[in-house]
Amino acid sequence: MEHTIALEGMEFFAYHGYFKEEQKIGNKYGVDLIVATNFEKAALTDDLDGTINYMELYEIVKQRMAISTKLLEHIGQNIVDDIYKKWEKSTNEVSVTIKKFNPPIGGICTASSITIKQ
């Protein structure tokens, strides 16, 4: 049986970007995370040990968003890797989307984004 745990619409102010100005000024980012797992044990027993704790998932994303990087792709891969390391046996798939609001592209653009599904 396959189940998913999702954290949608997480928001962070962070200092990511290819350009030095982006790393100094900072920007608003959005993150959506979906983890495929099997939480049947938790559903049957009402025990948190039978699932992936979404507060711990949030902490992984928060910690990675706090580390200034040039590329959203790098942040996304690090989040995916951290989740697989922590829940190696219970994680079947991770999907993370990171959005940079108002990216500096020289025109109007609400957000740029990347998605990693692994």
TrEMBL record:
Keywords: Folate biosynthesis, Lyase. It catalyses: 7,8-dihydroneopterin = 6-hydroxymethyl-7,8-dihydropterin + glycolaldehyde. Pfam families: FolB. GO terms for biological process: folic acid biosynthetic process; tetrahydrofolate biosynthetic process. Pathway: Cofactor biosynthesis; tetrahydrofolate biosynthesis; 2-amino-4-hydroxy-6-hydroxymethyl-7,8-dihydropteridine diphosphate from 7,8-dihydroneopterin triphosphate: step 3/4. Catalyzes the conversion of 7,8-dihydroneopterin to 6-hydroxymethyl-7,8-dihydropterin. NCBIfam families: folB, folB_dom. This is 7,8-dihydroneopterin aldolase.
